[in-house]
From TrEMBL:
Protein encoded by which gene: mtnP
Species for this entry: Paragemmobacter aquarius
Keyword annotations from UniProtKB, A to Z: Glycosyltransferase, Purine salvage, Transferase
Gene Ontology MF, one: S-methyl-5-thioadenosine phosphorylase activity
HAMAP family: MTAP
Protein name: S-methyl-5'-thioadenosine phosphorylase
Keyword hit for Transferase: yes
Pfam annotation, one family: PNP_UDP_1
Amino acid sequence: MDSMIGVIGGSGLYDIDGLEGATWVKVTTPWGKPSDEILVGRLSGTPMAFLPRHGRGHVHAPSDINYRANIDALKRLGCTDIVAVSAVGSLREDYRPGDFVSVDQYIDRTFARTKSFFGAGCVAHVGFSDPTCPRLSDAVARAVPAGITLHRNATYIAMEGPQFSTRAESNLYRSWGADVIGMTAMPEAKLAREAELCYASLAMVTDYDCWHQGHAAVDVAQVIRTLTANAAQARDTVARLPAILAGDGPGGHTRPSCPHGCDHVLGTALMTAPAKRDPDLLAKLDAVAGRVLKG
Ligand SMILES: CSC[C@H]1O[C@H](OP(=O)(O)O)[C@H](O)[C@@H]1O
Ligand SMILES: Nc1ncnc2[nH]cnc12
């Protein structure tokens, strides 16, 4: 299979540099408009697509992002892998502002978002015990430049927002064992799984949320200060990724099927009997589930 890396940029990352032949492309989807046009080009020869999650100029709030359109658009363009860059608050002393975090578990506390491509007329249940792809997460971890502290195997709590947490909530999430907090990884990671895309996180700690007695409670100015200082390292990480992924594969821009099965989850997930499926929904699922619905 030909590989294409999709990068979803979070707060503070609205474009990437160094893409050869870079063009902003408008992608239409059956789920509505993605957050923005998508920057498509090649990095070290590997096809790459970059989508700013909040749109250029940060116009979409976390609850208003069209997560389904974003994931569909990236899949429609040919992405096989998604690296989700995000700003997070730290819920632990040893995760300091400026540190990078590789998330591999999520707690979903969001409640005002559409979380599935499937539903009435085509019901599906995909496995989500391991929401990120270990192969892609390892590659992202190896791409983080030397000198940056990287914490691996972290748990991310996704809150609805847009307000930051109360101190009682922040302490509650700490007691649950969550390591970092943000507002956007859900339902993004769930939808990437449904679309059979490998998904990995590159989170950047920007603040200590509000639980830490020794630090002021989070505010946007603090988040932006840390992000501005870190954006270059996030861009470097993305720039190093193609060579690392190519070195893991058979060479060229092809890659074998995901050894963890991310690209085959729909094989066992569809519940609705073929005769009972809704043709309108099936038509919308052409990019996301075409592999299993065709023929
Ligand atoms: C600007 S602070 C809150 C904002 O930042 C994070 O965005 P992203 O995950 O896209 O990097 C957080 O989730 C909130 O949306
Ligand atoms: N403390 C925090 N809470 C939620 N989202 C965040 N993004 C960055 N810092 C955050």
